[in-house]
Amino acid sequence: MGDTFMGYRRKDGKVGVRNLIAVIPSVFCSGKVAERIAYQVPGTVYFRHPVGCSQVGEDLEITAKTLIQIGKNPNFAGVVVVGLGCERFSPYEMAEGITGSQKMLETVVIQEEGDSLEAIQRGTKIAREMQQLASRQQREECDVSELMIGLNCGGSDMTSGLFANPALGIASDKLVAQGGSSILSEITELLGTEHILARRAVNESVAQDIMGTIERMEQRLLRQTQESSNSSRNHLISTGNYAGGLSSVVEKSLGSMKKSGNAPFSGVIKYGEEPVTKGLHLLDSPGHDGEVTTGQVAAGAQIIVFPTGRGTPTGFPGVPVIKVTGNPKTYLRMKENIDINAGKILTGESTLEQTGEEIYQEILEVASGKTVKAEILGHDEQFCITRVP
Amino acid sequence: MKEVMAKEKAAIVIDQKDNIAVALTDLTKGDDCEVRSNDTITSVQVEESIPFGHKIALQRLEKNEIVYKYGEEIGKMKEAAEIGSWIHTHNMYCDRGLKNG
Asked: Is A238 an interface residue toward B (CB < 8 Å)?
C-alpha cells in the first residue's frame, strides 16, 4: 500500500481535497450576481472573469471548455452556474458539460429570474442548500494516486532554478512514482529543453507532441516580437539572466523544467482539457501564472505547488496553492505568504532531497485538509482563462 | 541561518552527473570553497572571481567538452578551463539560440 491522504470521494470516482460549492458565472455580465451569492454563503467560492461573450472560434471554445472543466474539478461538491441569458456561451451548455461529474448542479439565469436581486435571492437559496448537503460528507482514506498537482513558478529569482524547482521536482517524482499525476506548463519557459523533454516521453507519439507544442509556442513568440515595438526584447533569454549566471537558454529553461523532476511524460494536453491517463503531463499554456494554474485546475489538479523567489501572495479559488521559496530572505520577509522555506538549502540547513521530501509531505497534509497561507488570507487572484490572439 | 555560514565560501552540485557547481556566495581567487552535494562535502580551490549564482568548474574541462548542470548538457567549452575556473559565456557556448538568443 502506498501513501494515503484523507479526501472527499465524488460520485464520478474522483477525489477532492476541499469540499466547497463553486459559483461560476458563464459570462462576465453575471459576475457580480455570482459574487453576491458566494458572499452570502460560507463554504462557497466564485470565479470572476471577463469572458463568455463576444468571442469566436478557438478563443470561445477554450473559454467554454475551461469553465466547464473548472466546474468538474473534484474540490467542488456542487456548482451554481450563473448566466445572464443572451450570452454567446450559454449557461445551459455550461451546466450540460458539468453534468457528467454527477455533482449537485443548478443554473440561475438573471433575465429569466427577473432582475439581479431575484437572481441573487434564488442563487443564495440554492447555494445554501448545496452547502448544507456537502457538509454531511466525511473525508475518507484515499490512495495518493488520486492526487494531481499543478506545477507553476512565478516571481522567480536565481534561487528558483537552483533550489525550489529541483526540490519540487523530487516531490513530483515521488508522487508520479506512486501512480499520481503532475502537470508541467509554462511552455514559454521551456524553449531550449524540447529535446530533453521529448527524450523523457513514454513513446514516439508523445515525443513528437512535445516537440510540436514547443515549436508552435516559439513561432508565436517570434511573430509577436517581430511585429511589436518590443522586437529588441529577446524571447529566449534576457541580459538579466546572463548577469545572474545563466550562460545559455538551455540552462535557463532547465531551471524551470526541473519542477517536473525526471519522471517520464505520459502525454501532452490542450488548454481546457484533462489527461486520459495518470502520470506526468505537459499542458500547452503560456507562462502567465494565472493562465497556467487555471489550465491545471481545469485539467483536474486539486493542489498547486508554486515556487517563488521574489515572493508572490496569489492563490486560486477553492484550490490550495502551496508556496515554496528558495530565497531565505524572501521567506523571512514574506512569512505570512510562503508555506515552505527551500532557502534552507542555500544556508546549508537542508539538502535538495530533504526539502523535496518536506514538499511531498506538505502536499499530503494539505490534501488531507491542512490550509495553506494563500487560502487563509483569501487570495484568489489566479483564476484567469487564457485567450487566443 | 547559522552564524558561520556568512563567512564560509560554498557552492552546490545540483545533479551527481554535473561537472560544475553553482556558487552560493561570491567567490574570490584563492578561496577554499566547500562543494555541497546531496550527502557529501568536498572542496575546490577558487581560481578567479566568481559571483553568487555563477558556475565553477569541478574538474579541468577541455575544449568542446560538454558542460553538465541539472545532469543535462547546457553547452560546450569554447576553450579549456582549469578546475576552480569561472564557467560562463566567455568560455562556454550553446548551439541552441545562437542565432536569436
From this structure: no
Selected for mutation to probe chain A from B14, B17, B49, B77 (highest A CB count within 10 Å) is B14
**In this complex, is the C-beta atom of B26 within 8 Å of any C-beta atom belonging to chain A?**
no
Separation of alpha carbons A342 and B2, rounded Å = 15
The pLDDT assigned to A238 comes to 83
The DSSP element (H or E) to which A37 belongs, if any, is: helix A31-40
pTM: 0.95
pLDDT at A232: 59
Q: What is the pLDDT of residue B4?
A: 42
- Chain-chain contact of A247 with B89 (C-beta, under 8 angstroms): yes
The amino acid sitting at B54 is: H
In terms of phi and psi (left: phi > 0; alpha: psi -120 to 50; beta: otherwise), the region of A226 is alpha
Which of A300, A296, A299, A311 shows the shortest CA–CA distance to A382?
A: A296
Contact status, residue B86 vs residue A239, Cβ threshold 8 Å: no
**Of A164, A172, A130, the residue nearest A148 (C-alpha):** A172
Q: In this structure, what DSSP letter does residue A138 have? A: P
Give strand pairing partners of A254: none
> How does pLDDT run across A306-329, given as a tens digit for each residue?
999 999 999 999 999 999 999 999
B55 in contact with A, Cβ within 8 Å:
yes
Among chain A residues, CA nearest to B5: A347
Whether A251 and B101 lie within 8 Å, measured CB to CB: no
Interface contact B14-A251, CB threshold 8 A: no
Q: Which helix (H) or strand (E) holds A211?
A: helix A204-227
Q: Please report the residues numbered 67 through 86 in chain B whose beta carbons come closer than 8 angstroms to any beta carbon of chain A.
A: 67, 69-75
DSSP class of residue A161?
Answer: I
Give the phi and the psi of residue B67 in degrees, each rounded to 5: -95, 125
In the prediction, which pLDDT does B7 show? 45
Asked if the model's pLDDT at residue B99 lies above 70, the reply is no
CB contact under 8 A, A162 and B53: yes
A334-371: pLDDT as tens digits? 999 999 999 999 999 999 999 999 999 999 999 999 99
The sign of the dihedral angle between the CA atoms of A105, A110, A112, A114 is positive
Extract the C-alpha cell encoding A307. 515556487
Angstrom distance (rounded) from CA A73 to CA A185: 18
DSSP string, A278-310: -EEEEE---S-HHHHHHHHHHTT-SEEEEE-SS
- Predicted confidence (pLDDT) per residue in A94-127, tens digit: 999 999 999 999 999 999 999 999 999 999 999 9
Q: What is the ipTM of this complex?
A: 0.92
The CA-based dihedral angle spanning residues A107, A109, A115, A118, taken in that order and rounded to the nearest 10 degrees? -10
Q: Give residue-wise pLDDT tens across range A260-282.
A: 999 999 999 999 999 999 999 99
Residues of A in contact with B1 (CB under 8 A): 328, 347, 349
